[in-house]
Amino acid sequence: MSFDIREPLYLGGIRALGLLDKLVTGPLWRLIESVPNALSLNTQLHQLQVCLKTWSKDAITVLYGKCVFSEADVSITRNEVY
After folding, report:
1. Average pLDDT for 64-68
2. 36, 37, 26, 35: which is closest to 69 by C-alpha?
3. b/e for 42-73, b at 16 or more Cβ within 10 A?
4. CB 73 within 8 A of CB 31
5. pLDDT score recorded for residue 74
6. Which pairs count as long-range contacts for 64-70, CB under 8 Å and 24+ apart, including other chains?
7. 6-59, pLDDT tens digit by residue?
8. Which residues contact 62 (CB under 8 A, 6 or more apart)?
9. What pLDDT, on the 0 to 100 scale, is given for residue 3?
10. Exposure check for the chain: N or C terminus, fewer CB within 10 A?
């Protein structure tokens, strides 16, 4: 167990998952909970698709903490991970 904690590759993966949670999955989950049906999310899902295509070519905005969704759509928790 302590080997896993000291392994840089594992730590990098965990940090990447934390960033994705803050920028994508966390806000998306809050959006899903706040709408009456899935069809209400068409705009946000298109925005997510465009953002993921952009990240596949150049993911530098991930390091700047640019969230996929606008703050008008979902509340964004900014903490030490940001």
Report:
1. 72
2. 26
3. eebeeebeebeeebeeeeeebeeeebbbeeeb
4. yes
5. 72
6. 65/22, 65/23, 66/23, 67/22, 67/23, 67/27, 68/23, 68/24, 68/27, 68/28, 69/27, 69/28, 69/31, 69/44
7. 888 888 888 888 888 888 888 888 888 888 988 888 888 888 898 889 888 988
8. 19, 23, 55
9. 76
10. N
Collect all residues with Cβ–Cβ distance below 8 Å to 18 and sequence separation of at least 6.
81
**Predicted pLDDT at 10:** 87
16-23: long-range contacts at Cβ-Cβ below 8 A with a sequence spacing of 24 or more?
A: 18/81, 19/62, 19/81, 22/65, 22/67, 22/77, 22/81, 22/82, 23/62, 23/65, 23/66, 23/67, 23/68
Given a cut of 70, whether residue 72 has pLDDT beyond it is: no
Residue type, 1: M
